[in-house]
Write a structure and sequence with these properties.
With 468 residues, this protein is α/β, with parallel strands linked by helices. It contains 15 helices and eleven strands. A seven-stranded mixed β-sheet has the order 1-7-6-5-4-2-3, with helices on both faces. Strands 8-9-11-10 form a four-stranded antiparallel β-sheet, with helices on one face. Strand 10 and strand 11 form a beta hairpin. Helix 1 packs parallel to helix 3. The longest helix has 26 residues. The mean pLDDT is 96. The protein binds pyridoxal-5'-phosphate. The site of pyridoxal-5'-phosphate (PLP) has 13 residues, from helix 6. Pyridoxal-5'-phosphate binds next to helix 6.
């Protein structure tokens, strides 16, 4: 390919991205294809000879418009949406296009410096204490792994079989996965029941910790969640901090989705105590609107990461390790050696939009969850199951029929209106809306709930026809 073709293809690719973004609100919310359907769209034969880039772009265009779920669609309200910002997307294009190495100071000093600048900005935006450091990772699961390794490595190897960790039954599965990867046995984790508000039950947690101490176990880690995935609940962070201090435990907070709420005055009240943790995970690829993959682990003492991950004895890295004070090698602070320039997207997004726009966008997400609760109240057949917490609200049909919830949400997705995956809360079928996308409007919320209600009515009609 010559330079002219690359440019033309590049302009076409950018046009595809911008056009898609403009058209997205009017498009179906996405689709899930079968492997057989995809077989016919993605040629399986290994290409030996050069092909046309336009033909390749045609395939990509077709696939991304017809054959995936659009996690950035304003009515994709399931899981935690990924409302990626276009400035962040351009930054990713540049990071790849210039193939900047973000693993070492020697390999990419500006990238490393910018990453540390962004860590400082996040510290400031989230209200974390002076001295907080950290690194970018691909996702919340990686960030959690890094934090848990640092927490474990405070103990000599001989004691590690006695370490026990605590989190609630609402915690994200990435925590158990991280400890498993780090070699912990399942019985070293205590899953603490949550209370009626889906917050960790402090009384039961305290009892468990005391019982473990009596049994000569070593409680070493307590993890709270600042915005659980299912209901958006926030664990009692100040009480967790107190318990952690009393027993010299590491206090971790999973703020993968919820932590950015601390940038708003409403959110900061809800997340009081977040600044007391030893480690905090936040995913800019969620409520800071960055393209996947973008997560950060913030640490009260980031040098502990270095103690866990540094391999300064490797001779082939010797040339990269001669640095002064702030000239860090991020590969010393996590699992990855080769790292892309992951911070560029957050840096460009914040630089172009400004922090105030981010605060307004996060406030909008909080407003939309409140608004959804108001709309639910207009439908006598629905009731709130959990009130809006951060940007999550859940509700259910009064029949409590799980087939009905499955039917309505799959019909809603099949017709392309919205994605509202059903889930179970306290044994009860529910619909859950996560409203962090700044492009989600009141009309989107109203339409989604009204179509759900229509599908519920259709379910009853179908059921009565079948039983007649
Ligand atoms: C609360 C919470 N923690 C952790 C994670 C895991 O993050 P990631 O998917 O980036 O690994 C998620 C993912 O959705 C989450 O919602």
């Amino acid at each position: 390919m010559n330079e002219v073709d690359v440019r033309a293809a590049g302009y076409r690719a950018v046009d595809m991205i911008v056009d898609r973004s403009l058209l997205l609100p009017g498009l179906p919310v996405g689709a899930v294809c079968t492997p057989a359907e995809l077989d016919s769209m993605i040629p399986g034969e290994l290409p030996e000879k050069p092909g046309s880039i336009d033909a390749a772009l045609d395939i990509v265009q077709r696939l991304v418009s017809t054959s995936v779920m659009h996690h950035d669609h304003p009515r994709f309200l399931s899981f935690v949406p990924g409302p990626g910002d276009l400035v962040g997307a351009l930054a990713d294009l540049l990071a790849s296009g210039c193939n900047v190495f973000g693993g070492s100071w020697m390999g990419g000093s500006a990238a490393v410096h910018m990453e540390q600048t962004c860590v400082g900005w996040l510290r400031q935006l989230l209200g974390m204490p002076a001295g907080t450091g950290g690194v970018f990772t691909p996702g919340g699961s990686h960030s959690t792994l890094a934090a848990f390794a640092a927490a474990r490595d405070r103990y000599p190897v001989a004691d590690r079989h006695r370490l026990t960790a605590y989190w609630s039954d609402q915690a994200h599965g990435c925590m158990a996965k991280a400890l498993s990867v780090l070699g912990f046995r399942p019985d070293q984790v205590r899953v603490v029941p949550s209370d009626a508000e889906h917050r960790i039950d402090m009384r039961r947690l305290t009892t468990m910790v005391r019982a473990d101490i009596r049994r000569d176990q070593l409680p070493f880690l307590v993890a709270g969640t600042a915005g659980t995935t299912s209901t958006g609940s926030v664990d009692p962070l100040p009480e967790l901090a107190k318990l952690a201090r009393r027993h010299d435990m590491w206090f971790h907070i999973d703020g993968a989705y919820g932590a950015p709420a601390a940038m708003t005055s409403r959110g900061r009240r809800l997340l009081a105590g977040m600044d007391e943790c030893d480690s905090l995970v936040v995913n800019p690829h969620k409520w800071l609107f960055q393209p996947y993959e973008c997560s950060v682990v913030l640490m009260r003492d980031a040098e502990l990461l270095k103690q866990s991950f540094s391999q300064e004895t490797r001779p082939y890295l010797a040339a990269t390790t001669r640095q002064a004070n702030r000239e860090i090698n991020p590969y010393d602070y996590g699992v990855d050696l080769t790292r892309r320039f992951r911070a560029l997207k957050l840096w460009m997004s914040l630089t172009v939009h400004g922090a105030q726009s981010f605060r307004s966008a996060i406030d909008h997400g909080l407003d939309m969850a409140e608004y959804a609760a108001e709309i639910v109240a207009e439908y006598p057949e629905f009731e709130l199951i959990t009130p809006p917490s951060l940007a999550v609200v859940t509700f259910g049909h009064r029949s409590k029929l799980s087939d009905l919830h499955d039917f309505a949400s799959s019909q809603l997705a099949d017709e392309g209106t919205a994605v509202v995956a059903p889930l179970t809360i306290d044994g009860r079928p529910a619909f859950r809306l996560c409203t962090i996308n700044p492009r989600t409007t009141r009309e989107d919320i109203r339409l989604t709930i009204s179509r759900l209600a229509a599908h519920v009515r259709a379910y009853h009609t179908t059921e009565s026809r079948i039983s007649a």
